[in-house]
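Listing S7. Sequence submitted for prediction.
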Amino acid sequence: MTSEPQAATTTSVLFVCMGNICRSPTAEAVFRRRATVAGLADRLLIDSAGTHGGHAGDPPDPRAAAAAARRGYDLSAIRSRPVVQADFLLFDYVLGMDNYNLRLLRTLRPAGFAGYLGRLLDFAPHLGLDEIADPYYSGAGAFEVALDQIEAGADGLIAELRRRANGPGGPARTAVMARDPGSTSR
């Protein structure tokens, strides 16, 4: 039995929040489903992680899972894991859900990281927001609001990936944006 090598044009996306039990697993499931519908899933590696490892191995928060399920997203296979520095070697896009987690990600980023380190909502500028608020300490409505924002960000990211695939250089890893929005260093 032979295995097919992974296509050189695979783009990898990592969604990151604090505990990897609310926003980032939701973003993983939403993006995976939307990428499948868009016909891009076979060219993507999609995962999620948390900046804090206190929930490692845990399933998503039941409230996040319930909100996602109401919209047809399945979070049941996702388990929390901490983000590690090696993730920057694997993922082209490392997307935090808020500014706090983005700051933590910047401290983990190795000097040679050539991918895109930013926020998911960088891809939904029409919302006028840069953060997806953590719904963990809020009611069920906060999970719905987070889902609305995640869906908008996922749609914007898919549009960006399509633009890149159709533009000069195609979707190859070398064509990934090598900038960090908000960074003062080059």
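Caption to Listing S7: primary sequence and predicted structure tokens for the chain studied. The longest strand covers residues 11-17. The first helix runs from residue 23 to 37.
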